[in-house]
Amino acid sequence: MKIAMIGTGYVGLVSGICLSDFGHDVVCVDKDSSKVERLQRGEVPIYEPGLDQLMEKNVSAGRLSFTIDLTEALDDAEAVFIAVGTPTRRGDGHADLSFVMAAAEEIAKTAKNYIVIVTKSTVPVGTNRQVKQTVRKANPDLEFDVASNPEFLREGAAIEDFMKPDRVVVGVQTERAAEVMQEIYRPLYLREFPILTTDLESAEMIKYAANAFLATKITFINEIAALCERTGADVKQVSRGMGLDGRIGNKFLHAGPGYGGSCFPKDTRALARTGQEHGLPLQITEAVIAVNEEIKRRMIDKLVDMCDGSFNGKTVAVLGATFKPNTDDMREAPSLTIVPALVGGGAKVRVCDPQGQREGEERLPGVQWVDDPYKCVSKAHLVVLLTEWNEFRALDLKRIARKMETPRLADLRNIYSVKDAKRAGFDAYESVGRVGFLRQTAKETAAE
Ligand code: UDX
């Protein structure tokens, strides 16, 4: 089947490449000609493990191509996916649908034959009906259907998530559209991955409800973590004890510096906004958004305490800037709140991240980027572990402690423990949801 994919951002590119790997003929379209040129040269503009090889394989097989020309992409296509951005709209927190609607209008003006217009971008409930109206208005003669097909890809594991999904959700209005969608996902269907066919509104709602639920789960454990610190409980033990209950499950119960990324913050805000628009404020989701902000602020308080009340004149080494490992994405990463607070407070900040530097250089002004974690911590007063990259999971803590001016570790991902830190010779260790320790240094004791 020939498929067009509009938008070669994260979702569009991963989906386009994976659909071509299913054996479909996929043409990816983007307005950004320099991006298309890069893709045509075989360069993948994002960091996602395995994506470059999969792209090369399918381009070589003649199933995957890139263009700026929508007419060429839509020629003979039976389905066109809209995978353009839906950023948070300035002012009201709602999803900005202008890119989606512009794509819909262009499809209407370009398509010649029956086509299924599939929305892959995350869009509020009701958007697919709006897409339908927009297309009908722009070209009353076009024969088409709309479908909602939300994505559930995790960055860093996107190919695996696409190829072995927990489920595929397809919202349709007609049998004809359902058949086209089934054909698209046939390889998954054959391997018995659940394909859930719903109405348009339910498909749209599933995506938001799932993300808001996951954000709630994380925020819940983060709030419990704060209470664990006050009461002497250990949140890792608490999570394990909770997660063994099959009804709760052990995933997404890792306490940390607050959720970030391209989806959870944006989607929770948009869902809350939809609730308000319908006169039904979603109190839980609204609380999750507020508590997540509060959690990020608490992390800063924790770091101030570890710097004896002020960042001024301190050197702080930050390990990890991306919102999670295995991505170069820094959208709404906790580092964007924490690092400016360090810099603003007068600290000299060095950052080390295996993939984050390119984006980070723009987003985190006033910091020095260092490739090697051991160089990063040299003469520092505090090291802050902010992203749990594998590279940071087995650091030689003794070597780190030896290189620091005052060996103090803020482990905001709970990778290490008080025992590890004491054994390595740290003077202070704090994590999230576990009681840490602060040992006065010989220098401080002498000064008193
Ligand atoms: C998420 C969803 O998982 C995916 O289904 C959806 O379609 C897009 O949004 P992603 O943003 O790639 O994917 O990241 P995810 O792995 O879900 O993590 C999101 C955030 O939550 C990160 O900041 C991560 O550090 C944080 N997190 C996750 C925790 O703090 N604790 C956890 O236990 C899990």
CATH topology of the largest domain: Rossmann fold
The fraction of residues in strands falls at: 5-15%
CATH hierarchy: architecture of the largest domain = 3-Layer(aba) Sandwich
Identify the CATH class of the largest domain.
Alpha Beta
Ions, cofactors and other ligands present here are: uridine-5'-diphosphate-xylopyranose
Alpha plus pi helix count: 19
GO molecular function, one term: oxidoreductase activity
Domain UDP-glucose/GDP-mannose dehydrogenase C-terminal: 317-418
Pathway: Nucleotide-sugar biosynthesis; UDP-alpha-D-glucuronate biosynthesis; UDP-alpha-D-glucuronate from UDP-alpha-D-glucose: step 1/1
Family: Belongs to the UDP-glucose/GDP-mannose dehydrogenase family.
Walk me through what this model shows.
The protein has about 450 residues and is α/β, with parallel strands linked by helices. The chain folds into two domains: about 1-200, 3-Layer(aba) Sandwich (Rossmann fold); about 200-448, Rossmann fold, CATH 3.40.50.720. The chain has helices at about 10-20, 35-40, 50-60, 70-75, 100-110, 125-140, 160-165, 175-185, 185-190, 200-230, 235-245, 265-275, 285-305, 335-345, 355-365, 375, 395-405, 420-425, 440-445, and strands at about 1-5, 25-30, 65, 80, 115-120, 145-150, 170, 195-200, 315-320, 350, 370, 380-385, 410, 430, 435-440. The strands form two sheets. It has an eight-stranded mixed beta sheet with strand order 3-2-1-4-5-6-7-8, with helices on both faces. A seven-stranded mixed beta sheet has the order 11-10-9-12-13-14-15, with helices on both faces. The mean pLDDT is about 95. Bound molecules: uridine-5'-diphosphate-xylopyranose. Uridine-5'-diphosphate-xylopyranose binds near residues 218 and 252.
